[in-house]
Amino acid sequence: MRSPTAPLKEVHVALLGQSQVGKSAFILKYLTKRFIGEYDGTLEETYCKQESIDGEPVIVCLMDTVDCESGEWLRWQTWGDLFIVVYDITCSKSLSFAEKLLERMSKHEHTLCPREHKTLLLGNKTDLERYRVVSEEEGRRVAALYSCMFDECSVAGDARGVNEVVNGTLTTVFGKKRSASPTRLCASDSEISTSQSRKSTFSVTLRSSSRLKESSKLAYLQKSPSLSKMNKTGSKLLKLFHN
Ligand SMILES: Nc1nc2c(ncn2[C@@H]2O[C@H](COP(=O)(O)OP(=O)(O)OP(=O)(O)O)[C@@H](O)[C@H]2O)c(=O)[nH]1
């Protein structure tokens, strides 16, 4: 059993993909188990949640990216342990966009990266099956081309689907075999909250929200330290829960 002072592992998950494929909705569903349609999609944020992977507590940090077409995409490349490249099964352009991202990522020079990267290509909106234009086979073909894992889900559907995508993938790729990077170790949950709030211009613990009682053991959000140069304020979730 883990001692209370033992460091917690931290894994970084970045969601990439064309606008409107459901990246923000995916993260909000993972954090709150709810499908939420109203939020500000122009903000880039990092959200964290404590999970159990292979029976071990792990801090899962999810980055909701915007503007994947900008030249700043490289910063996700060094931040992430797992990249979830999302496309919309009802939009073939979103798969082409995902493919371009995968191509760029495959050309990235990883020798200086502090962590090994894994990628999951994820087709979203399977609840809109009647409007499907990208077959599962086509998604699998692209994933195989870039040696990625592949899955499909509906963020609008059962919350377990989204949880399984994240936790199942993390268990597969970062289960007991993986050790955390020393630069990303924190001694305890409280130290994590403290250290994050020092870095952040704001930090809020979602655990204190009565509207989230059924959700995660620990979920808080922060502005990503690596994105400090971005002049964006506020947060999708803050906006959401304060309305
Ligand atoms: N039917 C259906 N709609 C979805 C699903 N996931 C997301 N949506 C909707 O798709 C739209 C786009 O979702 P977002 O989460 O804002 O997409 P995004 O990729 O974050 O978009 P940007 O913030 O512009 O990058 C919203 O209207 C969502 O409600 C899904 O699984 N099924």
From TrEMBL:
Keywords annotated in UniProt: Hydrolase
GO terms assigned for molecular function: G protein activity; GTP binding
EC code(s) of this entry: 3.6.5.2
Keyword Hydrolase listed: yes
Hydrolase recorded as keyword: yes
PROSITE patterns for this protein: RAB, RAS
One protein family per Pfam: Ras
Superkingdom, taxonomy of origin: Eukaryota
Reaction catalyzed: GTP + H2O = GDP + phosphate + H(+)
Class of enzymatic activity (EC top level): hydrolase
Family indicated by similarity: Belongs to the small GTPase superfamily. Ras family.
Official protein name in the record: small monomeric GTPase
